[in-house]
Structure formats: structure tokens, C-alpha cells
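Chapter review: from sequence to fold.
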Amino acid sequence: MLTYPQIDPVALSLGPLQIHWYGLMYLVGIGGAWYLASRRLKRFDPNWTGDTLSDLVFWVALGVIAGGRLGYVLFYDLAAYLNDPSLVLQIWKGGMSFHGGLVGVLLAVLWFSHRHHKSFFQLMDFIAPLVPIGLGAGRIGNFINAELWGRATDVPWAMVFPTDPAQLARHPSQLYQFALEGVALFTILWIYSRKPRPTMAVSGLFGICYGVFRFVVEFVREPDAHLGYLAFGWLTMGQLLCIPMILAGAALMWWAYRKEDARHETVS
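The C-alpha cell string follows.
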């Protein structure tokens, strides 16, 4: 069994102001995505300026934060937030939903694409390879907060988390998700998107890969105590939300390549 590294969730205290590692991870995700987007900007659209990219990053970041928080409230713990609405603002304590954040990003991109006369899926294909940076950083934030730990296990790398009332050795599922949703997903999408692909294909691959990775890790991640298993005695909320995502991703890739094949047949 490995010893959980005791890391203070507060990275820096300046009088009454406390800067949490969880919040800093969002800055890492946004900053990293911004930097890599700037490297690909001219290939995406030679007419776009750095200001246009900054505008896009701002609205996408707003969609991530607002959608992620509201998604968590609606999908995972609505009763607690209705009882104390001030909890909605306490994002440094965690409580963000990826699927809610995804909805927020989709709405932000939909508005931005209309404003800048750009195809919605062209923009999503541009953004998708950048998302794993934030996902990976967020999982490190979960690990530092000692939250969203895995199920009890006897594997050699199990850890006892200080926030676990039962003090059981558990899977460090946050690190599994960092490796899959962060490192692996970024590598797959970045390599795949380096060559021209049919519009919607990169977005579709993101949906498939994230959905599968999250679905698999949920088997060793402790379900939310107030939700438990929601179907068949083993399906969690995270898995249920991933099923339509995988199906939608597969449909997008199928449609993208079908349109590409039809275009080639027309040209030939």
C-alpha cells in the first residue's frame, strides 16, 4: 500500500485570501489550452487574430466553470444546494461535473460560432484536442483535495485518503482518470488531429474516447454516497451520462466519414 502524500489543499494564503490548488489547476488547464491553441491558430484560420482566440478562450472557460458547477448541482446533489444555495459559489471545495461543463462549452461555442460566422463543428474539432489538458489538471486537483477516491481494494498501490471516514485502502481513481482522460486522451486527439480530418471526426473521437475511459474507471471509483448505483446494481451516474456521449461520438464519426466518402465519389 502506498502512503497518500499529505498536500495542503491551500497553495498560498495571503491574509484572508486563500488560493487553492484546485483553482490553480483550472488556470493550468485554461493556460495550457490557450498556448496550444495559439500554435495551431493560423492553420485553423489564417484570418483569426490573437484577440479572437482570447475571446474564444474566455467564453469556453466561462462555459466550463458555469456549466460544470450547475451540472454538478443538477446531476449529483440538488437537495444539498437547495438547502444551502451559497454552496454553489464554493467551487474551491470541488463539485464540478464534466458533463455539465461539456454542455456549457457546447452552448458557448454555439454562440461564438454564430457571432464569428464559423462552423460549429469546425470550432469543436479545433477545441477538442485541447480539453484533456484541463481534464488532467482537474483530476490532479481532485487528488490533492482527497476527493472522488476509488473503491476499497488490496492492490499494492492502494491509498488511505484522509477524507475517507472508513479509512480503507482505496484505488487512487483520480490518478487513473488523470492518466486516461488527461494524458492518453490528449495524445490520441493531438496525433489524430495533426492531419486533416473530415469535419466532426475529431469531436466524435473525443466523445468516444472520453466516454469509454470514464465508463471504465467508474468500475473502480466509489459512487457518490447519496446516489449509489442507479441501474442494474452497478451503473453509476457517471456511466449513465457517458453512454449517450459514446453513442453521439460514434454517430459523428460515422457521419463525418460518410460525407467525406460521398464527396470523393462526387469529385471522381
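Two observations follow directly from the output. The mean pLDDT is 88. Residues 12 and 19 are 5 Å apart (CA to CA).
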